[in-house]
């Protein structure tokens, strides 16, 4: 799956994360996140995997493109008293 800049911004919005918070969680520079989200450049595959992993570990689920296009959502939390 190729991460789109719009998905990255939307995922950060769902988590209420800044670009700095995402960069720190993914182990990349803030300018990498900023430039990607502003369509200045594409992410290298390794960097894309780091960004997606950070977002997924924080609770984001990436939706693949269908007739409505790609998207993001928050994972359903585990029921109280149940292991995730």
TrEMBL record:
Top-rank taxon, per record: Bacteria
CDD domains documented for this protein: HTH_XRE
Ranges in coiled-coil conformation: none
A GO molecular-function descriptor: DNA binding
Start and end residues of each HTH cro/C1-type domain: 9-37
Protein name per Swiss-Prot or TrEMBL: Helix-turn-helix protein
Annotated source species: Chelatococcus asaccharovorans
């Amino acid at each position: 799956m190729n991460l789109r800049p719009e998905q990255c911004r939307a995922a950060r919005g769902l988590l209420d994360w800044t670009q700095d918070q995402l960069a720190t969680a993914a182990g990349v520079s803030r300018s990498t996140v900023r430039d990607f989200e502003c369509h200045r450049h594409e992410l290298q595959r390794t960097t894309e995997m780091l960004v997606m992993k950070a977002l997924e570990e924080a609770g984001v689920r990436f939706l693949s493109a269908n007739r409505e296009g790609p998207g993001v959502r928050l994972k359903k939390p585990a029921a109280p008293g149940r292991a995730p």
